[in-house]
Amino acid sequence: MSGQDHQSPPQKRILVADDEPHIRRILATFLEASGFDVVEVVDGAAAMDQLQDTSHYDLALLDIMMPEHTGLEVLDFVRGLTHRKGLPVVILTAKGQDADREAAFRLGANDFLTKPFSPKKLLARIHDLIGIS
Ligand SMILES: [Mg+2]
Questions:
Q1: If you average pLDDT over residues 27-53, what whole number do you get?
Q2: What top-level class would CATH report for the domain 12-130?
Q3: In this predicted structure, what is the pLDDT of residue 117?
């Protein structure tokens, strides 16, 4: 037991799916600096591959406009996977797509953020969803 208090809790793992390299880089850099383990994918098909697999994820951030499959299609797919039933999903989208917001929540999104988003706000919502205080 000695030394246990000095161990860090296991890193929470986040899937970041966005086709824009600069957005991925901003998200990954920020989330890693905030203590998360980040896996980046560049399109909807790759996101589905990751989530269909049994590797552990604590949360997924899905851009809507991506090649292969949209973030909403990935969300719909994820909600059909028994082993991802409770996975928190945050949808990211460009400004002014109100129909997207409705569709995202109807498909079971836990949160919805419009780009450009405040990293602080994103982090607060991620902490809420993952249960970090
Ligand atoms: Mg995009």
A1: 97
A2: alpha beta
A3: 85
- In the chain, where are the structural domains located? 12-130
**Mean pLDDT throughout 104-121?**
92
Q: How far is the CA of 119 from the centre of ligand 1 (A)?
A: 17
Cα of 4 from ligand 1 centre, angstroms: 42
Token pair 């989530």 is at which residue?
51
Ligand 1 geometric centre to CA of 2 (Å): 48
pLDDT at residue 32, as a whole number: 96
Q: What is the DSSP string of 93-126?
A: EETT-HHHHHHHHHTT-SEEEEES--HHHHHHHH
Pick from 99, 95, 125: nearest CA to 111 = 125
Per-residue model confidence (pLDDT) at position 2: 46
Q: Give Dmax over CA atoms of the chain in angstroms.
A: 54
